[in-house]
Design goal:
The chain is α+β, with helices and mostly antiparallel strands. The chain has four helices and two strands. The longest helix has 14 residues.
């Protein structure tokens, strides 16, 4: 519920003013927050990378794709040094 509340409070200008690299990760099967939010954030944030995971829901660090999720985070962090 916190994620849904915050989604309504974030403006375009807020996202467009982010000036650091951002990794956006979202499950295509998230029933709580639409994957369109991830695509929208990716479009608005200048230096963002988007990973859509086939994991089973909102908690992408759990489930069948957790190794790929963890690998993407490590790759992002290692490339942004």
């Amino acid at each position: 519920m916190i994620d849904l509340k915050q989604t309504g409070e974030i403006s375009n200008s807020f996202l467009q003013n982010i000036r650091c690299p951002v990794l956006i990760m979202h499950s295509e099967y998230d029933a709580s927050v639409s994957v369109e939010h991830a695509f929208y954030a990716n479009d608005q944030i200048q230096d963002s990378r988007l990973y859509i995971t086939p994991s089973w829901g909102h908690l992408i660090w759990l489930g069948k794709d957790k190794r790929n999720v963890n690998q993407r985070v490590l790759e992002f962090l290692n490339n942004e040094k």
